[in-house]
Amino acid sequence: MIFLNFKLNRAKDGFFKLLRRAAENFFLTFLILVFFALIVGLVIFYKYSILPSKMEPELGEEVIKFDNDSYQKILQEWQNREGRFNAAKTKLYSDPFRP
């Protein structure tokens, strides 16, 4: 247990020394971080912009067919809903705040 504690203390001291050195050489640290951010940005740009445009889409064997019966059912349902909505607009409700 003491050995593990010694290693953790040593790692913590090394981390703080690294931070101190980075703070002392601020300009160099800034350039390294900017370069790192540039590389990460280029990798993300390549992965999501350039790479998909090079790949060919896979075409399936299935042919998409338009189901006219389902379309008619949906159209009928929409017309029913629109009729109920328009009927609700014309109904007059009494004002509960006026006697």
Distance between the amino and carboxyl termini:
82 Å
Mean pLDDT: 84
Structural class: mainly alpha
Secondary structure tally, helices: 3
What's the main sheet like? none
What integer value in Å does the Rg equal? 34 Å
Q: What is the overall shape?
A: elongated
Per DSSP, what share of the residues sits in E-state strands of 2 or more residues?
Answer: under 5%
* Topology, number of strands: 0
* Helix-strand topology string: HHH
As a percent range, the share of helical residues equals: over 70%
In the predicted model, the low-confidence regions spanning at least 5 consecutive residues are none
Describe the secondary-structure layout.
Blueprint: H1 2-24, H2 26-54, H3 68-90
Structure notes:
The chain is an all-alpha fold. The chain has three helices and no strands. It has helices spanning 2-24, 26-54, 68-90. It is elongated and about 75 Å long. The termini are far apart. The mean pLDDT is 84.
Throw out a few tags for this protein.
99 residues; mainly alpha
In short:
By secondary structure, this protein is mainly α. The chain has three helices and no strands.
